[in-house]
Recover the amino acids of this structure.
């Protein structure tokens, strides 16, 4: 029995995740709102996860899927820390526009 | 037994030095002086026993103590060689040394640091003995530097006076220039022969070992430079006249009789080496002759009694080097000995005069001392006659031998030497007349205090004057005990002059020359009662002579001042440049930092943009550049 | 008991001096440093009896680092120098009132510990750690207890720290590179490492930068005079007496055996640099008006000569360098102590304000004179032995080297006697000058006794070090 993933063909997964990744990059580059940037980063992360899962199935090797679990767990932790920072920033500055965060200017 | 005696010979003065340094002040002046004198007298007695032993057996006494320096190719031992030459030298070093110690007991009695004076004198004798009895060049070098040190300490004995300290420092540094030459010579000899022992080198040379002649000459020349420094030859002689700043017994012992003859000792010691380097011998002869002439010329016009004697010493040393250069080592040694007698006597006599005049040294303020200071006058007269080269005084024989040798080998050198001798006769009698004849020219107070010196001062004078009178017997023309005695230590047989017509003619010329010099002095200073002009009135060539050809000024201008100028340049320019370069490196880093920090705009968007751009360029580089 | 015991004593002594408090710190430091000296002497005795007193243990497996303290005649001699000078230096500080003295003495002992470690380590990595470790205490000693105003002192000391530290980093790079070749840092391994000419050249240069700055060889010397002047005298003594010997010792122990080819090929350059330092330092010393600066430049001249001798690659030169290191260590400590005594009593370092001291204290004048004479290499002092071998080795290499380097005996006499005359001689000084105390005289007498004993009878030392040096010289000249 053929898996649905195998029917579609690996190249399509690559195209999709590349697209998702680029969406993430442009989101990070063009948006000024920290929350949106954060979401864009998540999209990039998930693009990579998608690719990992796709290749894992393609190669019939479970390692990639294990790896995705790891990266999801790390992403969850990252979100927790990151959002906490953003909340702290919002309390101090009353907005979360990254153009205001220039205190580390050299 | 010999070893213990040799150690006693060496360490008696050293013990005297230590005792005087640590206990001299407590012992009191008389005891301290006696102690110092006894120490040297002990050495003299030991020397005498060795001397008689060597005359009887003819065999040198060798003592080897322990290994001192270890080098890759050879070792240097603490070893002593008591042979004919070193014992002869020790005889007059310790002998005259003892006399001068006796003299100093009285002469230095008013000085608060008398115990130090005797300590230094004893130390000097210790180093002089080391210099003479060493069995290799490096032991000689110990003594060589050591006597230089004592000379420094004694010239600057009255250390509160900075002029004296300058003179002491100058003597030390001038000597060190020569010492460097000596050291380089030692290096070359060590490299060539793999040994510094006299006997080993002599054997190697006489067995005809393959030795590079050029290097041998360079080594000989370097050794001679060392001798120039110590024995005050051109161009390193200027320290000796300044060294007269020291107490007069020091001038007599160190700067006339013993230390300054170390150069002659060294060349004689290494005669087997110098015999093989005729070019260097020529250099030695020419330097010696010119030195004797120039120093005599300067001596003609000096007015300080000790300065005249100092230049006369330089001049006589020049004559000795002339003899060495002509290969007549035994004649040079002969002149060293007679010179030690009469010059020590002259210096001590001048000290006696200075003592009587309470420190006055200018001859223009003396005169008429003949009547008050009879013993000083008579001994001084005998020595003056000896240095002028009149028979039968000792100086006549030695000086005549030198001139005769010069006559047979090179007429020009003979003329120069004879001229120097005539000048010597003139300035010595000038000194004698100005000091002892006519009327006293000093102050009334000085005149009131004029007196003959006490017995401790006159006794050495008498002994030395007798030696100056009869010293010539050790090497009479035609029948020389000295030549025979020294034969074992000289590589070539001694020069032997037949007592033929030429010899008598030369003697006659020398005597007539001396009489001319004396006559000129007589007519000027006795007949015309002339007194040398005051400093400001000296003009013309006499002024050049009086200022010693401005040699000191020239040295200052071309050596000392440039060194200081280079020092200023180093301090102000190169140090600042080096330092600036290092600080410059720091500044560059600092500047890069302050430029680089502007890249950190703080804009997160910019950072992210740079981040993505960087990733892209890495991707492009890895996947597409191939 | 092995050689690590000495290091432990010193380290423990540093801690002990700190914890006994300000009042007893100096005594504790003196006791522990003397104990270290006694232990070293005992170990040396055992070593000459044929026993092995080395300590070798693996420290880290990967990378392979060995905690190795090798006792051979060279390292033992240097250890003896370090542990002999440390109590002398501590004794020399006794008359000073020192703030926070427990830290001061702890730092001195810690410094001795680091320097001793540098001399005995056989593993390049451990050696490097000790080498850099010694920089930390001297930095604080000079900065916190130094002379002069804070700003200029800070500038001089920080410059010194960064300069020597930066130079040493090149050495670290060289060691890491050598590790790739050899598989461990042991010097015996590194001697055998097969290197191309180009590799040798760069490794030699990296070592040279580290050592040339530390010694210092011109033109890397600009930190020296200022730091010597600004440091407290104990710091100056540590720097000039022992620390710069670390670099010369390292040339003989590390640089030359590991990369001898460039040293052979460019021998004239390195010997020439050393000799240039002799002339340069001597002439600059003539122009100094501050007594400590004058001694600093004279030290520059002397170590230039030592370095030049080591770079001749001959047995005579290297042995001369070794002997002169010991002699110079003692004489320079003595001279700086004399300078300290004078400037403490007159409260100035300016030579022009001194003079006439000999009238006031003849004893001190005599001892100072002997040190001056030793410094100008008078025969029968230890310095003459070293200087003679050094100059002789240069004469073997090229006669002009010996002639030019030999001017040190003239120029040295010139500036030292000039200084002595201006400082000590002349009419009595108006300012009072207390006679030397027993403790002060003891320091001088100890130093003078060492200098004169080995000047007359250097055979114990030469016999002790020569076999090891011969082995090293064979390794150094393995390509010829």
């Amino acid at each position: 029995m053929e898996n649905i993933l195998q029917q579609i063909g690996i190249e399509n997964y690559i195209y999709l995740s590349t697209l998702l990744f680029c969406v993430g990059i442009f989101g990070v580059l063009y948006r000024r709102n920290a929350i949106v940037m954060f979401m864009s980063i998540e999209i990039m992360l998930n693009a990579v996860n998608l690719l990992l899962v796709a290749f894992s199935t393609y190669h019939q090797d479970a390692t990639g899927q294990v790896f995705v679990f790891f990266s999801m767990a790390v992403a969850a932790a990252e979100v927790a820390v990151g959002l906490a920072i953003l909340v702290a920033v919002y309390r101090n500055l009353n907005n979360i526009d990254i153009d205001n965060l220039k205190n580390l200017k050299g | 037994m010999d070893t213990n005696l040799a150690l006693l010979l060496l360490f008696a003065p050293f013990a005297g030095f230590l005792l005087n340094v640590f206990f001299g002040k407590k012992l009191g002046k008389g005891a301290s002086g006696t102690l110092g004198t006894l120490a040297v007298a002990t050495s003299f007695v030991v020397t005498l026993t060795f001397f008689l032993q060597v005359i009887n057996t003819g065999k040198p006494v060798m003592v080897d103590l322990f290994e001192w320096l270890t080098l890759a190719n050879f070792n240097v031992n603490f070893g002593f060689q008591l042979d004919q030459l070193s014992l002869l030298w020790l005889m007059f070093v310790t002998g005259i040394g003892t006399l001068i110690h006796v003299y100093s007991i009285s002469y230095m009695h008013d000085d608060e640091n008398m115990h130090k004076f005797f300590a230094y004198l004893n130390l000097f004798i210790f180093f002089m003995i080391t210099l003479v009895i060493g069995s290799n060049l490096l032991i000689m070098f110990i003594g060589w530097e050591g006597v230089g040190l004592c000379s420094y300490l004694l010239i600057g004995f009255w250390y509160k006076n900075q002029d004296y300290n300058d003179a002491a420092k100058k003597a030390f540094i001038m000597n060190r220039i020569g010492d460097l030459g000596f050291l380089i010579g030692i290096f070359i000899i060590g490299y060539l022969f793999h040994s510094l022992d006299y006997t080993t080198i002599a054997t190697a040379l006489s067995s005809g070992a393959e030795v590079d002649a050029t290097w041998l000459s360079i080594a000989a020349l370097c050794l001679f430079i060392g001798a120039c420094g110590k024995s005050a030859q051109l161009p390193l002689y200027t320290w000796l006249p300044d060294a007269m700043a020291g107490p007069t017994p020091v001038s007599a012992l160190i700067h006339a009789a013993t230390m300054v003859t170390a150069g002659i000792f060294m060349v004689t010691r290494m005669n087997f080496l110098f015999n093989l380097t005729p070019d260097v011998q020529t250099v030695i002869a020419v330097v010696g002759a010119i030195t004797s002439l120039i120093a005599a010329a300067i001596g003609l016009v000096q007015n300080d009694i000790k300065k005249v004697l100092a230049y006369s010493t330089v001049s006589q040393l020049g004559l000795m080097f002339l003899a060495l250069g002509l290969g007549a080592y035994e004649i040079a040694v002969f002149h060293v000995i007679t010179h030690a007698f009469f010059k020590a006597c002259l210096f001590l006599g001048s000290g006696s005069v200075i003592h009587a005049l309470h420190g006055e040294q200018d001859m223009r303020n003396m005169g008429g001392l003949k009547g008050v200071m009879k013993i000083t006058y008579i001994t001084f007269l005998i020595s003056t006659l000896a240095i002028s080269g009149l028979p039968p005084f000792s100086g006549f024989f030695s000086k005549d031998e030198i001139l005769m040798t010069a006559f047979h080998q090179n007429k020009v050198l003979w003329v120069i030497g004879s001229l120097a001798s005539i000048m010597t006769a003139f300035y010595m009698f000038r000194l004698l007349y100005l000091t002892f004849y006519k009327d006293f020219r000093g102050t009334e107070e000085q005149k009131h205090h004029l007196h003959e010196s006490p017995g401790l001062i006159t006794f050495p004078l008498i002994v030395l004057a007798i030696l100056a009178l009869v010293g010539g017997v050790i090497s009479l023309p035609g029948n020389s005990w000295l030549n025979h005695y020294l034969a074992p230590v000289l590589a070539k047989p001694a020069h032997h002059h037949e007592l033929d017509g030429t010899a008598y003619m030369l003697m006659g010329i020398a005597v007539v020359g001396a009489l001319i010099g004396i006559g000129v002095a007589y007519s000027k200073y006795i007949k015309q009662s002339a007194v040398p002009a005051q400093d400001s009135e000296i003009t013309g060539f006499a002024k050049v002579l009086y200022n010693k050809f401005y040699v000191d000024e020239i040295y200052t201008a071309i050596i000392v001042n440039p060194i200081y100028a280079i020092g200023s340049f180093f301090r102000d320019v190169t140090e600042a440049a080096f330092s600036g370069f290092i600080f410059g490196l720091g500044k560059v880093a600092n500047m890069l930092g302050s430029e680089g920090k502007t890249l950190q705009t703080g804009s997160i968007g910019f950072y992210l943009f740079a981040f993505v751009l960087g990733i892209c360029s890495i991707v492009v580089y890895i996947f597409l550049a191939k | 008991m092995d050689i690590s015991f000495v290091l432990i004593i010193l380290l423990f002594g540093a801690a002990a001096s700190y914890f006994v408090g300000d009042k007893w710190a100096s005594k504790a430091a003196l006791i522990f440093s003397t104990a270290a000296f006694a232990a070293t002497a005992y170990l040396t005795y055992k070593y000459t009896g044929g026993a092995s007193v080395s300590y070798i243990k693996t420290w880290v497996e990967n990378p392979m680092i060995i905690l190795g303290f090798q006792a051979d005649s060279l390292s033992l001699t240097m250890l003896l120098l370090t542990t002999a000078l440390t109590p002398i230096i501590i004794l020399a500080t006794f008359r000073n009132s020192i703030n926070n003295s427990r830290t001061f003495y702890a730092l001195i002992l810690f410094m001795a510990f680091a320097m001793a470690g540098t001399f005995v380590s056989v593993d390049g990595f451990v050696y490097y750690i000790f080498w850099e470790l010694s920089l930390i205490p001297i930095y604080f000693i000079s900065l916190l207890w130094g002379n002069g105003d804070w700003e200029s002192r800070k500038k001089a000391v920080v410059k010194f720290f960064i300069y020597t530290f930066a130079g040493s980093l090149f050495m670290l790079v060289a060691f890491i590179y050598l590790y790739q070749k050899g598989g461990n840092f042991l010097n015996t391994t590194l001697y055998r490492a097969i290197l191309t000419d180009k590799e040798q050249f760069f490794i030699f240069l990296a070592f040279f930068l580290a050592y040339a700055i530390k010694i210092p060889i011109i033109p890397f010397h600009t930190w020296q005079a200022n730091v010597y002047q600004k440091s407290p005298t104990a710091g100056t003594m540590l720097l000039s007496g022992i620390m710069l010997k670390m670099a010369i010792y390292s040339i003989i122990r590390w640089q030359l055996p590991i990369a001898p080819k460039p040293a052979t090929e460019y021998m004239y350059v390195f010997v020439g640099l050393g000799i240039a330092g002799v002339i340069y330092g001597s002439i600059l010393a003539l122009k100094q008006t501050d007594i400590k600066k004058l001694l600093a430049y004279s030290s520059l001249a002397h170590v230039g000569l030592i370095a030049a001798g080591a770079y001749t690659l001959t047995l005579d030169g290297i042995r001369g360098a070794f002997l002169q290191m010991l002699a110079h260590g003692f004489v320079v400590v003595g001279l700086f102590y004399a300078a300290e005594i004078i400037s403490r009593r007159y409260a100035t370092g300016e030579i022009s304000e001194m003079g006439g001291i000999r009238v006031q204290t003849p004893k001190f004048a005599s001892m100072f004179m002997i040190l001056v004479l030793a410094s100008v290499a008078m025969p029968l002092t230890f310095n003459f032995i070293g200087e003679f071998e050094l100059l002789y080795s240069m004469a073997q290499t090229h006669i002009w080297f010996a002639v030019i380097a030999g001017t040190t005996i003239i120029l040295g006499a010139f500036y030292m006697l000039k200084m002595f005359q201006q400082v000590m001689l002349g009419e009595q000084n108006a300012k009072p000058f207390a006679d030397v105390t027993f403790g002060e005289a003891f320091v001088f007498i100890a130093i003078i006794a060492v200098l004169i004993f080995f000047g007359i009878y250097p055979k114990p030392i030469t016999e002790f070090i020569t076999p090891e040096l011969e082995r090293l010289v064979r390794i150094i000249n393995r390509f010829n």
User: Anything to note?
Assistant: Residues 22 and 32 of chain A are 17 Å apart (CA to CA). Chain A is about 80% helix and 0% strand. The domain at 4-100 of chain A is CATH 1.10.287.3510 (Helix Hairpins). Chain A has one domain: 4-100.
